[in-house]
Amino acid sequence: MIPRLSYCPILVFAFVLAACSPVSSGLPTLSVAPSSVEITPVVSTAVSGSASVGTVEPFIVTQPPLDYTPPPTEVPPTLTPIPAIAGGLGPTELKYRILAQFPDLFFCDPDYYPVARMDELELAKQRFPELQANAEEFNAILEHNNLKGVTSFTDEQVLRIYQEHKKLAAVQFTLDQASYRFQLQSAKGEGNGELISGMIDGQGAITVQQREPIIATCPICLAQGTLIDTPTGPIPVESLYPGMQVWTLDRRGLRTATTLLKVGKTVVPTNHQVVHLMLEDGRQLRISPGHPTVQGRLIGTLRLGDLLDGSRIVAVESNTYTGYATYDLLPAGDTGFYWADGILIASTLNR
């Protein structure tokens, strides 16, 4: 019996159609042994300062697979201060101006997405000297949190400063002559939201250039251009639509043609990372780290030497995604499994 897996839902822009009965393809039986991992979506909202910050903690693995080896603690990158505009306000103060205008900031907390790493307070303590070293941001955070002049911080204050830093990091800034280009996602919790882009000058004047409706959720899907196995041949995931036929793996372990029920699309932030997996047999896949395998493991937890769809992983890279959105699909049938770039994976979409 294949266990039921619970996943965080993403944007579904296609409606459920009537599923046809699966038809056995007559291909060789494939053996799949999913683990008993249960993946539970958790959504929380934290209010800090004047901004309501929606942070999604989409996957917490409550029971790791028997063959799971915990990854080493990641060393966070060194913070690089944002270049200042000559004669203007500091970049962090300008970010606070943007948050005052768009208070419903939505972002995926890196300490919880795609998997919870360790206690948030302990992470805050580890990174606190680094936060203090970025004097421009640190002093602005103190000013906006009624901590100006404080030199000895309680655990609660350390955590608050760290959470403010993560919130500010979710507002993307790029220096453009005498202004910054900015981008952020806005939503009241997970659900309907906006991707907002524009300019802010050194004095805090904001010009909104684009407001695009999105579903605010943490990207957990396939890169654009990923080929999906169908009875008519491989098709790019972004070209699929409900009612088409795709290959799935049924509960008996048979490769079966079935109807595509849903196609999902999630707009991603400019700093979204995807995992590039390379297998010993030559297959490769680019996919968000929070996407599940058929055993219930998250892609972001896979390491060199692990098995994926019957082949050893020989290379794992994390790359900045250059696409506009990530994608997922849900085949009819009793598993929701499908082949992406020739690799069998699970779906994140609910029926």
Q: Which terms would index this structure?
A:
Endonuclease - Pi-scei, Chain A, domain 1; disordered N terminus; alpha+beta
Model description:
This protein folds into 2 domains: 124 residues, no CATH class; 125 residues, Hedgehog/Intein (Hint) domain (Endonuclease - Pi-scei, Chain A, domain 1, Beta Complex). Helix 1 runs parallel beside helix 3 and helix 2 crosses helix 4. Strand 3, helix 1 and strand 4 form a beta-alpha-beta unit. The chain is of the alpha+beta class and 351 residues long. The two termini are 19 Å apart.
What's the mean pLDDT score? 78
Give the helix/strand class. Answer: alpha+beta
Q: Main β-sheet, in a few words?
A: 7 strands, mixed
Named CATH topology of the largest domain:
Endonuclease - Pi-scei, Chain A, domain 1
* Total beta strand runs: 19
Blueprint (SSEs and pairs):
Layout: E1 23-24, E2 39-48, E3 51-61, H1 91-101, E4 105-107, H2 120-133, H3 135-144, H4 155-169, E5 172-176, E6 179-187, E7 191-201, E8 206-216, E9 227-228, E10 235-236, E11 245-249, E12 255-267, E13 273-279, E14 284-287, E15 307-308, E16 311-320, E17 325-331, E18 338-340, E19 343-345
Parallel strand pairs: 3-4
Antiparallel strand pairs: 1-12, 2-3, 4-6, 5-6, 6-7, 7-8, 9-10, 11-12, 12-17, 13-14, 13-16, 15-16, 18-19
Helix pairs in contact: 1-3, 2-4
